[in-house]
Amino acid sequence: MKRYLRTPLPDRELELWRSLPPEKRDSVNNRLEALARWEDKTSDIEDVADLAGLSTSRFYSLSALWSDPEQRSLANLGIHADGPRRRRSRYDAELLQRMAAESVRAVARAPKKGFSIEKCITGVLDAVADTPHDIPGRATVRLMVEDAIRERSRGSVVGNDIAFDCCAIDVPGEDARPFVLFVGLDKSTGLLLGFAVAALNESVTGYREAAEDVVGRLRTRTGTEVPWAETLTSVELVIGNDLDAFREWEGKVRSEVRPVNFQGFNPHRRFGRYIMGSVGRMIGRIGLLPAATLERRAISGVQPKDWHTLDEARERMEIEMIVHNRHIAQSWQARFTDPNCMPPLPDRLAHTVGVMIDR
User: Is 233 found in the same domain as 107?
Assistant: First the structure.
């Protein structure tokens, strides 16, 4: 696909591609190949139009559009590549935006000493009491207030204190059992550094795969566009359903990454504790299911048509990670207008995740 689109491939194109079902991806590939053949003058108009599944006149129009490099996008291929859709809310959109803004104001006004989420929630509801629209309940407003709290406390540099967490997600696999997400994240900013998705809850295997993903991303352009901290001091991990194996692996890694504090926790089986603390209860449209992590209990009400393959689950998570990280990056893009001025990657971070893979 990179042959036909701009390089590096924009995030938007990745989102569009990953939102397509397999049969539409085949149609995309056929149209891209048809356009390439027509551009290379290796096929006549009837053959390329037939390959693209279009009439000759429609193919001429598509080819004319495609001749402009700025118009080369999956969205212009006519395959209805509209990207992942957001869940529609039954509440008025402007009201929700107003409530989000009121949540930010309520958190900003609240004293740090004796801070009360409940008072903030009440303040938000009182501020919009004059609306003629239905108002969300306190549970929904609590999520808005929690988002505002995270935004207020969000750090400005990445990589000083990171965590690896595991938690079941509401993406059902075979027999409606949830996949488990293993993710590396920056605790200060909430930036997702890398992830793995698996049909198991063994943390050593999951974290090795997640660490491989982190390393792969650090080696790309993305890894150079982050305001890194001077050094990595701490890596905390949530232990999965493999305590003995984890402790053995943890000891080997810790001995090679000192002075970094590398330690696993989970005395109360609090799966997802770091994700929820830094990101929230949802990563985009993917929800966390902490209580289902240990036994991977089937998600109720899920039909076979809603089951995902492992690749499909990974693709869904990839989309949400891109969108989430793009939002986080907005806060430092104003401070670092020149990507070449970004602080360098801490040596200890690259070394530590490398050891996680090898031990």
Answer: no
Phi, psi angle pair for 14, to nearest 5°: -60, -45
- 181 three-class SS: strand
H helix or E strand, kind and range, residue 167: strand 161-172
Residues 141 and 171 in one domain: no
| Shared domain check, 339 and 203 | yes
pTM of the model: 0.66
Q: How far apart are the C-alpha atoms of 213 and 222, rounded to whole Å?
A: 13
The pLDDT tens digits of the residues spanning 91-128 come to 888 898 889 889 888 888 888 788 899 999 999 999 99
Q: State how far the Cα of 198 lies from the Cα of 206, in Å rounded to an integer.
A: 7
pLDDT of 6 higher than 90:
no
pLDDT at 178: 95
Which structure tokens are listed for 179? 């996949």
Q: What is the Cβ-side half-sphere exposure of residue 335, based on CA atoms within 13 angstroms? A: 12
Co-location of 274 and 345 in the same domain:
yes
Q: Kind and range of the H or E element at 10? A: none
In this structure, are 243 and 332 located in the same domain? yes
Give me the sheet containing 261-265, strands edge to edge.
Answer: 192-198, 178-186, 161-172, 234-238, 261-265
**Cα separation, 271 vs 266, whole angstroms:** 8
User: What mean pLDDT value characterizes the chain?
Assistant: 84
Which range among 97-106, 108-117, 254-263, 339-348 has the greatest average pLDDT?
Answer: 254-263
322 exposure class (CB count in 10 Å sphere: 0-12, 13-18, 19+): middle
- Asked if residue 330 has pLDDT above 80, the reply is no
Burial string for 125-139 (b: 16+ CB within 10 Å, else e) reads: bebbeeeeeebbeee
Mean pLDDT of 189-201: 92
Tokens (6 digits) for 174: 């075979």
Q: How many Cα neighbours within 13 Å face the side chain of 268?
A: 3
Rounded distance between C-alpha atoms, residue 155 and residue 108, angstroms: 16
